[in-house]
Design a protein that fits this description.
The chain is α+β, with helices and mostly antiparallel strands and about 625 residues long. The protein folds into 5 domains: about 110 residues; about 100 residues, Orthogonal Bundle (Helix Hairpins), CATH 1.10.287; about 160 residues, no CATH class; about 70 residues, Carboxypeptidase-like, regulatory domain (Immunoglobulin-like), CATH 2.60.40; about 100 residues, Immunoglobulin-like (Sandwich), CATH 2.60.40. About 20% of the residues lie in helices and about 45% in strands. The protein has 3 helices and 35 strands. Strands 2, 3, 5, 8, 11, 19, 20 and 21 form an 8-stranded mixed sheet that branches. Strands 27-24-23-31-34-33 form a 6-stranded mixed sheet, with no helix packed on it. A 5-stranded mixed sheet has the order 22-10-9-25-26, with no helix packed on it. The longest helix has about 50 residues.
């Protein structure tokens, strides 16, 4: 019995000793550096800690719940054995309420209090009117009423009721304004609360510490709630000046932990992209089999831009004409293009925009810009690459919280990417609003030319063509356009294009006039046997009302037959060059100040008399 009791005492002592040696310690680390990609970031955080001898479970708390567990790396374990690493979401721990959210809630209470006071006062005045009206009835029952008393009563009640009604009206307006302010605050509070409701993550390390030691533990891990995107300023002083390009980065992170005085690198690499190489299969042909064409549209060329609040644009068909009635949708919100092919739609948290129209292929793109213009492809036509063109808007650019001081950024070219190392420590709060940094500045050789496509529009556009941009390590992004110290709106720099030069529209110049006519004497329709013959002739007249000579490119088009029964003959286009594949006519010339130039072209269309053919005017 004594032996059993002694064994029990020894067992309890051993258990207590083991429990004393195995400890659990919770810590919070500080982010010291980050490599931010277009989508995601590799974050390094550190914590200087004193570790006692024994078995220890070290828990790093208050981390973002969006960590790639396989990316976790631990450093600073010299002389310490790491048994295991686990990562999990702590559903009992939520992000701390931000100071901004507390201030909004305080403002909401004040507005609700003010609205309640105004409502009580309005109710009091309304009851005062009822009391006056009741009192008026009592006075009317007096037996000794005369004209003087009646007049006095009338003036008194009229004056009091008018004053009370005016006060009630003013209070009603004030209550409406307070309600508007209240709703705006509630919307902003709901948005911030949705961010603060995010649960936190934690990383647990099982350590075997052979002796007490003070060490600086370092955690490195990949998070999904961060990124950056390019932004540009394109400025020109005039058509005799080269254009300057200011290359900026807008960086954001919503990890729930503010980054203070960290080392920041920006990378064009994409760690979350598909790394599996494609496998080419044999190409077999057989009857009664449909070969699915491969679309050349690569939406991966465009990256989601979280700073876009509203998307506007223009949708065209494959002939360059506007498409009315195209369905445009972002999430559960949608709209249609108007008669001119224009649309506008609020983003409301969506990440992709979709375009669909009967007879055309649907397209879905990331929301990469506040201006997204698209040419839709017909369902039954051969696939051409969908062109996303630069399109200027008069709408001002979105405000950015803060612009970092301009200092030299180190640019390091990697094998498959480029890194931008910011020159000093930066701080980046956890917010959807980005912080802007200057990356580079360039002067680009620029040529200017006026452009007009009279069949589509008689407006003459000033175009700027930038050369030698391929070696600048640019990525696609929005750009603010400035010309002669005036803001023209924003456009999109598409670096995924195959063209040698970047071309931007600087808007319409009203001092260059164009008139396109279809002379009746030279245009006719007649029948010869079983054939319909249509003669088309056009005259274009341009006048330069500017004080400077201008270079102009005029582009028209001749029809192209896709049916051997339709013949295009008698083509005349004096002074123009013809692109046989596309049917484009190009006139390129200089127009002196005050000068006028007339361009002409014509053609004949022949087709069977019993068939209907639509010809554009």
């Amino acid at each position: 019995m004594k032996t059993l009791f002694a064994s029990l005492i020894l067992f309890i002592f051993t258990i207590n000793q083991v429990q004393a040696q195995h400890k659990t310690q919770s810590v919070t680390s500080k982010v010291v550096s980050a490599v931010v990609y277009n989508s995601g970031a590799q974050v390094t955080s550190q914590k200087k800690i004193q570790l006692s001898k024994g078995t220890l479970t070290l828990i790093f708390e208050d981390l973002t719940p969006n960590i790639d567990e396989s990316s976790i790396i631990v450093n600073g374990l010299e002389g310490i054995s790491l048994s295991s690493i686990t990562y999990e979401t702590d559903y009992l721990n939520e992000m701390k309420t931000s100071k901004a959210l507390e201030e909004l809630k305080s403002s909401l209470k004040e507005i609700e209090k003010e609205k309640a006071f105004a409502g009580n006062k309005k109710l009091s005045l309304e009851k005062s009117i009822l009391l006056l009206e009741k009192n008026q009835e009592l006075k009317s029952k007096e037996s000794e009423l005369n004209v003087a008393k009646i007049k006095a009563y009338k003036e008194y009640y009229a004056s009091e009721i008018e004053s009370l009604n005016n006060s009630i009206y003013s209070l009603g307006i004030a209550i409406e304004e307070l309600e508007k302010s209240r709703k705006k605050l509630v919307q902003e509070i709901n948005k911030l609360e949705s961010e603060n409701r995010v649960n936190r993550g934690k990383i647990s390390l099982e350590l075997e510490v052979t002796k007490s030691v003070s060490t600086n533990l370092s955690l490195s891990y990949f998070i999904y709630d961060a990124g950056w995107y390019a932004s540009y300023d394109l400025k020109s002083k005039g058509i005799d000046q080269d254009m300057s390009l200011s290359y900026k980065a807008k960086v954001y992170q919503t990890s729930g932990q503010d980054w203070e005085n960290i080392t920041l690198k920006l990378s064009t690499a994409n760690p979350v992209s598909n790394k599996t190489k494609p496998e080419l299969e044999p190409y077999y042909l057989d009857f009664d089999r449909t070969l699915k064409p491969i679309s050349k549209l690569r939406s991966s060329n465009f990256k989601y831009n979280p700073n876009v609040r509203e998307v506007r644009g223009k949708i065209l068909d494959n002939e360059g004409l506007p498409l009315p009635g195209v369905n445009v949708s972002i999430g559960n919100s949608g709209t249609q293009t108007d008669f001119d092919g224009n649309y506008a739609l609020k983003v409301n948290g969506g990440r992709n925009i979709r375009f669909s129209y009967i007879g055309f292929k649907s397209q879905s793109l990331p929301i990469y810009s506040s201006n997204i213009n698209l040419t839709l492809e017909p369902d039954n036509a051969s696939l051409d690459e969908v062109v996303v063109v630069a399109y200027s808007s008069s709408k001002g650019s979105n405000a950015v919280n803060e612009i970092a001081e301009e200092e030299v950024t180190e640019i390091v070219e990697q094998q498959n990417s480029v890194e931008f190392i910011l020159p000093k420590s930066i701080s980046l709060s956890s917010s959807r609003d980005p912080k802007q940094f200057q990356l580079d500045q360039h002067e680009l050789k620029t040529s200017y030319q006026y452009y007009v496509a009279p069949e589509i529009s008689e407006s003459v556009f000033l175009m700027a063509e930038l050369e030698d941009w391929q070696d600048l390590e640019l990525i696609s992004g929005e750009a603010n356009l400035y010309f002669e110290d005036s803001y023209l709106g924003n456009t999109f720099v598409n670096t995924a294009q195959l063209e040698d030069n970047l071309v931007f529209s600087l808007g319409i110049d009203d001092k260059i006039l164009l008139d396109r006519t279809l002379p009746k004497k030279k245009t006719s329709k007649n029948f010869f046997g079983s054939t319909t013959i249509v003669d088309k002739a056009y005259e274009l007249e341009l006048k330069n009302n500017k004080r400077l000579a201008t270079s102009i490119l005029v582009q028209e088009r001749l029809p192209i037959s896709r049916n051997e029964a339709i013949k295009i003959e008698n083509k005349t286009y004096q002074g123009a060059t013809l692109d046989e594949d596309k049917g484009y006519l190009n006139w390129e010339f200089n127009l002196e100040p005050g000068a006028t130039k007339t361009l002409k072209y014509s053609y004949t269309v022949k087709y069977p008399k019993n068939r209907r053919l639509y010809l554009r005017p």
